[in-house]
Design goal:
mainly alpha; elongated; 227 residues; 3-stranded mixed sheet; 75% helix
């Protein structure tokens, strides 16, 4: 019963964090940045000042689709961030450049996360079906659920490895913006708040993955105890 309560709480927290992130993004998207730099210009300036010259900045479709791709060394910014001259654009653009700087400096957790990506991608293609089959066949073929749990454990590990990557990128962004007077003190507080809510979505996702993993483990161990 406790695991069900935890999962419900995590789902509620996930919804709440997502709602607050969208709300803050909308709020800070309506707050012009005092230096009048666009997200693209912020990104170019941050990369240049960190001597990262082999990364491209690309405009992509969608909302909150901003990300850094270490495979082709691209900082991908949504239209609202790429062209925006507001606090949300500055915070997001600097954060994604933080990932590019991590890559340039061989940040250990980013390297580990990159190594896990192909493994997690392969396991995720089969994991749901294996878990479903494992639950249905728990009394006749419990090993199948055990395999599914192992695959799900990889995705949970990936979620937790992502946390230091995200927090470090935000810290790099905030330190650069503050140290180079890119923003005022009030703007720095806005950027910190926006990135904090973004980070919380990753924290809650990791906790949700852990709760789900424990749920499947409880099913597996429960069946073993009945033998």
């Amino acid at each position: 019963m406790a695991i069900y309560i935890i999962m419900i709480l995590v789902m509620a927290a996930s919804w709440g964090a997502g709602y607050m992130l969208k709300r803050r993004f909308a709020q800070y998207s309506a707050t012009p940045i005092s230096n009048n730099l666009s997200g693209q210009e912020i990104a170019e300036k941050m990369l240049r000042e960190h001597n990262v010259i082999d990364v491209s900045i690309i405009c992509v479709d969608g909302q909150l689709t901003d990300h850094y791709n270490p495979m082709d060394k691209t900082v991908n910014l949504s239209h609202a961030v790429y062209n925006g001259r507001h606090m949300a654009a500055a915070a997001v653009a600097a954060h994604e450049c933080g990932h590019a700087i991590q890559h340039a400096k061989s940040y250990a957790f980013l390297q580990l996360r990159s190594r896990l990506v192909p493994i997690v991608n392969i396991s995720s293609n089969y994991m749901q079906w294996i878990l479903l089959g494992g639950v249905l066949l728990i009394n006749t073929f419990p090993l199948l659920l055990g395999i599914g749990i192992g695959l799900f454990a990889l995705t949970t590990l990936f979620a937790f490895v992502t946390l230091p990557v995200e927090f470090d990128a935000s810290n790099r962004a905030l330190n650069w913006m503050s140290g180079n007077r890119i923003v005022t003190n009030d703007e720095q507080a806005m950027a910190k708040n926006a990135l904090w809510w973004a980070a919380m979505t990753y924290v809650i996702a990791a906790l949700g993955s852990l709760a789900t993993l424990l749920y499947y483990i409880s099913i597996f161990t429960g069946s073993r105890n009945e033998e």
